[in-house]
Structures are given as C-alpha cells and as structure tokens.
Write a structure and sequence with these properties.
Blueprint (H helix, E strand, L loop, with lengths): L1 H8 L15 H18 L6 H20 L1 H8 L2 H22 L16 H10 L1 H20 L7 H9 L2 H16 L10 H29 L3 H12 L2 H5 L11 H14 L5 H14 L46 H8 L4 H10 L14 H13 L1 H4 L11 H5 L59 H11 L14 H11 L1 H17 L6 H15 L3 H7 L9 H19 L7 H36 L12 H21 L3 H9 L3 H14 L20 H6 L3 H11 L23 H13 L11 H9 L2 H7 L10 H13 L3 H11 L19 E7 L8 E6 L11 E3 L11 E4 L2 E3 L11 H6 L30 H13 L32 H19 L20
Antiparallel strand pairs: 1-2, 3-4, 4-5
Helix pairs in contact: 2-3, 2-5, 3-7, 5-7, 5-9, 7-10, 8-14, 9-10, 10-20, 11-13, 11-21, 13-15, 16-21, 17-26, 20-23, 21-22, 22-25, 23-25, 25-27, 26-27, 26-29, 27-32, 29-32, 29-34, 32-35, 35-39, 38-39
Length: 1027
C-alpha cells in the first residue's frame, strides 16, 4: 500500500504532455515480481522458496488480468519499466537455462560443432529437471504477458517500446534455445520410465515456450513495416547461412550486401511514434537515473529517439514526397547511396529481375512442341537406368533454365535432336550419392532460425509460424506503397525466396503438410495457400519450383504439395474467375504455362520411361533387377503425376483456360500416359482366378511336423508360444516394376472428356481440334483399351464411354475407324468334327477374355448362318490353308487391301463404302464364327472377341447411377443406362457394338451436363493477434 500511495502522490511529478503516468498497483506488483525473478535466475541475491512462491503468484495474477482486463493491458503496454524488466529477466534466463540444458557453448547456439553430445545433454536435463521445470513455467507466463500487452488500441506504442529495450533480441535467443533443446534426439532406449518422463516434460515445456515466442513475434510485427523488416533480416540473414552461402545456387544473390542495405533502410525508417518517444525520453531523463531497472540500452540505430545530442539519419514521417529511385555507382557513402535509391535493397531487386518468371512482361519462352516431347521421351527411355546411377556433375539450372533459352555450357543428351529451348532437362544423369532420400524432410543441420520449427511442433502449435510468414509477405488489397513506389510485402517475399534460409523454411512448411496429411479445410493448408499466392504475385513460383527439386526424384514431395496448393488456388479462381483480359488472368495463364512445360518436358517423359521399362520386364525383354527405383520412388512419382492431373482437371473446367490446354495439345501427354499404362501394367480383374497349384497338405502328420515350411513354423509359434505375439509383418508389397499406377487412367479420361466436350451452351459436336489431335496420335486405340474392366482404375470404362461419344460426334475420321474395326474379321477356324455327340450348330471351342475375370475362358460359339447379301460390303477371306492370308474386303468399285493386321492401314474404299454410323440403318451381319474373333492390332491388348461379345453384353447390363457424382472426386461416375428389352428385333453383333457405343454416349451426354466438381470453400483466414 505504501508503494501504491507513493506512486499516486508522485503523479504531479509527471508532466501531462509526456503521456507518462504513475505506476499502477498491477505495474508495481509485476515489476517487483520480475526483479525478484531476475535475482533468482542470477543467484544474486540468494532467494528462498517462499519468496519465489510469492513471485510466481504475482506473475500468475498479472497474466490473468492481461487476459481479462483491457485497462491493465494498456497500462502495462505503455510502461517502460515493465518492458525493461522483462528484457532483463530473459537476458538472465537464457545463459542459465543454456548451461543447465545443453551445456555451455563456445559460440552461437545454432549448430555449434563444439556442443556436448546427446548423451551428455540427456544427463544434464535429468539432473536439472526440477529447476528447469520451475524456470520454464515462469518464463512461459512472462512471455504470455509480453504477448498480451501488444494487443491494445494503439499497438505501435508497445511495439516501439519493445524494440527500444531490445526485447526482440531476447526473443530471438529464446527461440534458438528452445529449438536446440526440442530438436535433440535423446538416448531414450537406455533410460528408465522415470527418466523418459522427465525428458518428455522438459521437451514439452520448451515447445510451449517456443510457441508463445512465435505468437509474441507475430503480435510485435503486426502492421509495422520496420519491425517486419527487422525480424525478416534477423531470421533470413543469420551468420551461419551467410558463411555457407553459395551464390551459384542462389541465383547470384549476395546476402551480406542485401543485409547491409536492409539495415540502412531500417535506420532510415527508425523514427518511433511520437507517444513512444515521449515515454522513453521521460524515463531516460527522469526515472532511469535514480531507480531500477536502470538506463535504456543505447544501441544504434534506435537510441537517437530518446538520447539527446545524437544526430538522426532517419527520414521524416511527415515527408510524403514521392522519390524516383536512383543508383549512383560513384557514391562512396553506402548509406547515402542507398538513401538515393530509396528502395529497401538494390541487391534484392537485381536478383528478382534475374530470377522471376521469364514470361513476366512478355511471352519470351515458347511452349515445347509435341515433336520435342517425343524426342524427350525417347531420350528418357534410353537413359533411364543411367539417370539413377551416374551423374558427372550436379548442374541445376535457374528458373530461366526451366523454361527459356539453353544454358551456355549445358551438355545435352543428343545435340543433334534436342530442341533449342530444352535447358533444365540436361540433368537426367544425376548421381545420387549426394541426394539422400531424407533430403526433403530436413534431416541434419539446416540453415535458418525458423527452419527446424516444422520438425518440432504439431499442426496446432505451428500456426503462429505460418501467420508470421503470411504477415510478412502476403500482398493484401489496398496496401500503401512507400515513397519510392515500393510494395514492401513483395520485397520481403523476394527476400524470402532469395535467401537460403527462406527457401529451406518454405520446403519444410510444404513437407509439413504432407507429413501431417492436412486437407484443404485445415487452417495450416489455407495459410500455406496464401503464402503460395504471395509467391505467385511476385512471379517466383518457377524459382521456388526449381529450388524444391531433389535430383533423384521425378518430382519431390515438396513440389507435390506446392502443386496441391496451386491447384487449390486455381479452384478458388473457378468460383470467381477474373476477367479474361485482366492482369490476374494473364498471370495465372503464365503460371499454368510454366507448369505445363514441366509436365511435357519432364514429368510425362520420365513417367513414360518407367512405364516403358515395366512393359519390357512384363514382356520378358528386360531383367527385373534392372529396374532402377524402389516402390517408395514410384509412389513419389505417382503422387506428383496425380497432382499434375488434378491441376489440369481444375483448369479444364473454365473455357478460357481449357482453350490454352487445347492450343498446347495437351491430349498428346494424356494419350502417351494411357499407352504407357496399357503396355506396362496388366489389368487387374474384378475376380482373381483360383491358384492352379495349391500347396497340398502332407498326408502323414508326423511327416508334416518334420517337413513343415519355415513360414508355417513361424506361424505356429505365434499361437503356441507363451510370449506375447510379435507385431504383424508389413503387408506384402509388389516389387517396384509391378507398380500399378492406380487411379491414373480415370483422371486422364476425365481430362480428355473435358477437352472433347462441346463449347458452353451446346451439346454437340465434340471439339474438332481435340478430335483431330486424338486421331493424329492414334489415341482411339488407347481409348478402346480402357473399355476393359481394370480394378486398378475403377470407373475408367464409364469415363471412356463419354470420351468415345464426343470423339465420334462430328469426327468422320473416328467414325471411319470404328466402321473399319467392326467389318474386319480373321481367317475362319477349322470346324469341329461332326458325329461326336456335339450339336451340328456348335462351332469349335475358343478362348475369350471375359471382362472382370482374370485369364482366358474357353467357350463354344454357334456356327454362323448364311451371310446377308445387299449393297453393303461383304468380307471375303483367303483360303483357309494359307497361314499368312490377310482378310480382304470386296466392295463395289474397289478392293481394300491389307485391311489387317493394322486397322489404321485399312483402305479408303472401306471408309467410303460404309454409311455413317449415326445415320445408317442396321448393318448386315458378318459371316464368320462370331463376327470378329480377334482384332489384329499390335497396340490393342484386349482381344476383338471380347470387344464383340463381352463388351456389348457388359454395356447392355450397366445399371449404375450418377447419384454418387459428388463422392468420386476428380473422376466421372458410372452412368445409368436404360435396359434393352427382349422385344427388340435381333441385330447383328457388329451393328450392336456400334449402336450401343453411340446410344451409351448419347445417354451419358444427356445425363451429365458438365464435368465440374463441387469445389470446397476455402475461406480466407483473417490475421488476428494472439491472446
């Protein structure tokens, strides 16, 4: 009470114009507790347990009041004494905790090579468990108070006071200590239960302190450009990262120059707000001379705000005169040189001009042609094994080399064939000795203050880190520019990508989403999407993409997550698309163009090369031991390919962006993947046939006990032993060369159907450009192969039906192809001998592939009736005895030669003689055992007998619904088809095949009005202060 009355009586000594007020009871209690806590930490003077218990109670009550009472928060936030005492407490706590937790360090705390071992650290933490726990509990409460008192109506006042007492520097050191202790691996296997509990308890307290520090940092930088720049400079340009800096991998960026220029900008903008300056001047001149906690630190460039006699070099806040940036090379004074330039850093600006998207201002980089993609694919097939086994030199290109002109000294796989713009693709022969699988997961030391944090915290704890990054770089609408016309948010975004620390942090933040499997509705996913949006606004996604590469992977996990975030960003655009002639739309198209170049030039060729080798092994033309990657690498490749297809599906929904995919001939990549999957991966039947050689049980029990299989012996021990059963073995995994690429076909067919669909507002015909592209690349064969059921790609049949409908609708070439397909037949098989009890109308036994059933099924078909004679063409076969006789088509006025084995070589006479599928009447029955028993197509895996019989029966039996469209993600659902009644007139098998395909596609077009998917709402999260 005496202190309180004394403080009140001294009110007259504070001039009103200074804004300084006498200490309130809360300020007195809190500062007294802080001074006692500092003495406890420094062991000077000696403080007993009762005193420290009272101190804890005062701090706890103060924390409660800052949570609930606005007036208390405001009073504490404007108290210079409170901020100074909190800074002194952490200045005493950091060395004390460091010594007791990880031992004394000879240098900096980040990755000190002379630090003690993990075993010694473990022993220290267990030994000092009680004292560390007490101190951490108190420090967490003090940091909570420091966080809370920044949430006031005038936050610039406590933000300036916090910077003046150097509390932000104590914050950095606390983060470093927390990261060092929390990230260490302890020898848990050699410890007892009690020791492990102690270690876990200390680790959780350090994590909690780390989270509170991040929240306080977020509140300190909120809406304060000087504090943001100061924080960004400290975390991005730390000493360790600059010592290990490599300009070649940083796009010719020099962080030491950039840091000096940023510090000069901070000094030019070091003027505090007027209220904070008055509080500091009054404290330094009237209070600090006689009372603790003593004088303010006089550290440049901020101390001129309260120290008299110092000449400030800061700009006037009231001076809003616009300036034109001017760089004078002859100026010897670096500060004046930077002042004349006006912007934050010329080094950052120069780096950005070199490494931004080359198409930022104009279309400087062309789209690779299909011919280039074909050459690239062949090169990848030839160099597949070498790519994973040998690399003469690690040559990672810049973002320019991803898209633009070739590098000066870049070696090429084939100088005589590679197109001129193939530049980032000279890295196929990478050596994996330096490329560890764990590289993308941040194993080992990483540069940067914040880079380790994603490996320490869980999704709920790490939110503050993402909010800090977002607050520093996201370009919000209506943001004011500097006097030099500079967008400071974009400048910090460029600093983020230019520095090694920033790129490492971005990689870990992306991998964090994959490791924790966060979906689009999670706050972490939404915050990271906004961070990617900020990078996109600075045209730096191409650079970020390149920096996230891992040499041995086709696409790294971080790149896969980046694609997922970009897809989420584009999906939001579909809800409210920008105008086609807007700057935002052009920026999105240029990003799509860059990603499509990656898809055509790297992703598809390398995935196709893997599929090609799978086909070689499947056909016994290669040894499975030669397959160069494992199942984990295949999963990574599939995940990346799936995300690319997801992105194409999203941009395919808008007519404006779909037009670009058609212009770039995206159908080629999709058909290439379909062909590769068809050749390399056998279809999985719905019902697996029983094993032909089951293991027979031993007839003699005694013999069985002696000759039991080792696996069976282990299985018996699992049940007979009295010991606890061991954990179940991992599920059997197919070898990598049998990787099924499940679900890829469905995505491809969905995109193809979207590309083929008619323009908006029309139901026919299909897009003629895409129809021509598919026919030019012989894609109809790949589409027909998808009609066979494949349990690896469920609903692929239903999607290909829509593709076939719009492919045939308006395409004469496609109709002619299918007519040739139906009217072909093979040489007749020998008739079964009569008189053996078989009916005379039965033909010989044949084998068919039944849809959904593995293996071949033996069937017996009826002998055909007499051929129908009319004006339509009839098929006439060569002599049965000729082994190599090819079927020939006899028609009025012309003869089609060499109609088989290749359908694409059928003569034009057949094309002209057969009437249009959609307008002609019933086609005549074709003589032969069963219409067409087998198509002689080298690229068609399924037999023609199946297409003529099983496919027709399967299509007529479809009884599926479109009601589950929303549950199928990116793939079109099965289609409800009307059943054919028994009263229909009989038709020839060839006529039924064509009519059913057309009828099925017409019904699909009627039932499905579009290919859009429900788009999850991704509401933008508002930036809020932590309380």
């Amino acid at each position: 009470m005496a202190s309180a009355s004394g403080a009140s009586s001294g009110a007259s000594s504070y001039p009103e114009d200074t804004g300084y007020h006498p200490l309130s009871i809360e300020e007195l209690c809190f500062t007294s507790a802080l001074s006692t806590f500092e003495g406890w930490l420094r062991l000077d003077p000696a403080i007993g347990p009762k005193t420290i218990t009272m101190t804890t109670q005062f701090i706890t009550k103060t924390l409660d009041k800052t949570h609930n009472l606005k007036d208390v928060r405001e009073n504490l936030s404007k108290s210079v004494e409170v901020w100074l005492w909190m800074s002194k407490v952490f200045a005493a706590a950091i060395p004390s905790l460091t010594t007791r937790s990880i031992g004394p360090l000879s240098g900096g705390m980040m990755h000190d090579d002379k630090a003690i071992t993990h075993h010694e650290t473990t022993a220290l933490l267990i030994k000092n468990h009680v004292s560390i726990k007490e101190d951490l509990t108190m420090l967490i409460k003090v940091m909570h108070i420091a966080r809370n008192i920044l949430v006031v109506p005038e936050p610039e006042i406590p933000q300036d006071l916090c910077a003046a007492v150097q509390f932000d520097q104590m914050l950095y050191q606390t983060i470093i200590l927390s990261v060092n202790v929390s990230s260490k691996a302890y020898d848990g296997d050699i410890l007892d239960e009690s020791a492990r509990n102690k270690l876990n308890e200390i680790s959780e307290l350090y994590k909690k302190l780390l989270v509170t520090c991040l929240q306080q940092a977020h509140n300190w930088i909120a809406k304060n450009d000087r504090n943001k720049m100061s924080f960004w400079s400290n975390v991005l340009f730390d000493e360790d990262s600059m010592d290990e800096h490599d300009a070649a991998t940083s796009g010719d960026f020099h962080p030491e120059i950039a840091k000096s220029q940023v510090q000069n900008w901070i000094e030019r903008n070091s003027r505090f707000c007027e209220k904070a300056r008055k509080l500091l001047i009054h404290y330094d001149t009237k209070v600090a001379t006689s009372l603790p906690p003593g004088r303010l630190p006089q550290i440049q460039p901020l101390c001129w705000n309260w120290v008299e006699g110092l000449q400030p070099r800061a700009d006037e806040l009231a001076d809003n005169t616009k300036i034109t940036p001017r760089w004078n090379e002859d100026e010897s004074d670096k500060f004046e040189q930077d002042r004349a330039y006006g912007r934050v850093s010329r080094e950052v600006d120069t780096w950005w001009l070199k490494n931004r998207d080359p198409n930022y201002e104009d279309w400087n980089v062309p789209t690779p042609t299909v011919e280039f993609a074909q050459i690239r694919t062949e090169n990848c097939k030839g160099n597949l094994v070498n790519r994973y086994s040998y690399r003469p030199q690690d040559q990672e290109g810049s973002a320019h080399s991803v898209e633009g002109a070739p590098l000066a000294d870049a070696p090429r796989e084939d100088d005589s064939r590679e197109p001129a713009y193939e530049q980032d693709y000279n890295d196929d022969n990478y050596d994996d000795e330096d490329a560890d699988d764990d590289e993308s997961y941040g194993e080992g030391p990483m540069s940067g203050l914040l880079t380790e944090i994603p490996n320490i915290l869980d999704p709920k704890q790490i939110e503050a880190l993402h909010m800090i990054v977002k607050s520093c770089i996201l370009d919000s609408a209506g943001l004011a520019l500097s006097r030099a016309g500079e967008n400071l948010q974009k400048t910090r975004c460029r600093m983020f990508l230019a520095s090694e620390c920033g790129r490492s942090l971005l990689r870990e933040m992306l991998v964090f989403i994959a490791v924790w499997e966060k979906n689009e509705q999670s706050l972490i996913f939404q915050l990271t999407t906004q961070i990617v949006e900020a990078i996109h606004h600075s045209a730096l996604i191409p650079w970020a993409w390149q920096s996230l590469r891992i040499p041995k992977d086709i696409i790294s996990p971080a790149q896969t997550v980046l694609l997922k975030l970009i897809n989420n960003m584009f999906r939001a655009r579909n809800n409210d698309p920008p105008a086609p002639d807007s700057k935002e739309h052009l920026r999105d198209v240029k990003l799509l163009h860059f990603l499509f170049i990656q898809f055509r030039s790297r992703i598809v060729p390398e995935c196709s090369a893997l599929m090609h080798l799978q086909a070689q092994i499947r056909n016994e033309h290669a040894d499975p031991a030669d397959f160069p990657v494992d199942s984990w690498d295949m999963e990574r490749a599939k995940d990346g390919l799936q995300q690319f297809l997801e992105l194409l599906t999203t941009v395919n929904e808008l007519p404006e962006t779909r037009a670009h995919l058609i212009t770039w001939e995206n159908a080629y990549e999709l058909l290439t993947l379909l062909k590769g999957l068809e050749d390399g991966v056998p279809k999985k039947p719905l019902v697996e046939p029983p094993s032909k050689s089951p293991r027979c049980p031993s007839p003699n029990p005694s013999t069985a006990s002696m000759d039991v299989h080792p696996d069976d012996e282990d299985l018996d021990h699992d049940y007979d032993s009295g010991d606890p059963p061991p954990p179940p073995p991992p599920p059997m995994q197919e070898p990598a060369y049998k990787f099924p690429w499940g679900g890829i076909k469905g995505q491809i067919l969905h995109i193809l159907a979207g590309l083929l669909q008619p323009p908006p507002g029309r139901s026919s015909p299909g897009n003629p450009d895409v129809q021509a592209q598919i026919m030019r690349h012989n894609g109809i064969v790949s589409l027909l192969n998808c009609c066979v059921y494949d349990d690896h790609n469920r609903y692929a049949r239903e999607r290909v039906q829509i593709c076939l409908k719009w492919l045939m609708d308006g395409s004469e070439e496609a109709n002619n192809f299918l007519r040739e397909l139906v009217h072909m037949k093979t040489p007749p098989t020998a008739q079964a001998p009569q008189g053996d009890g078989q009916s005379s109308d039965l033909g010989p036994t044949q084998t068919l592939r039944i849809d959904g059933v593995g293996g071949e099924v033996k069937v017996r078909v009826k002998n055909p009736g007499p051929a129908v004679k009319n004006s339509a063409p009839t098929v006439k076969n060569s002599a049965p005895g000729s082994k190599n006789a090819a079927p020939s088509v006899k028609n009025t006025g012309s003869v089609a030669k060499n109609a088989a084995p290749a359908v694409k070589n059928a003569t034009s006479a057949v094309k002209q003689a057969v009437p249009d599928v959609k307008n002609s009447g019933p086609a005549p029955a074709v003589a032969g055992p069963s219409g067409i028993n087998r198509l002689m197509l080298p690229s068609l895996v399924s037999s023609a007998a199946m297409l003529n019989n099983a496919l027709d029966d399967a299509l007529s039996g479809l009884n599926l619904s479109l009601g589950n469209l929303g549950n199928l993600g990116n793939t079109l659902p099965p289609i409800q088809m009307p059943q054919r009644g028994d009263s229909q007139p009989s038709r020839g098998r060839s006529d039924e095949l064509l009519r059913d395909i057309v009828a099925l596609a017409d019904e699909a077009a009627r039932l499905t009005g579009g290919f859009g998917r429900p788009k999850p709402d991704a509401d933008e999260t508002e930036e809020e202060d932590f309380m």
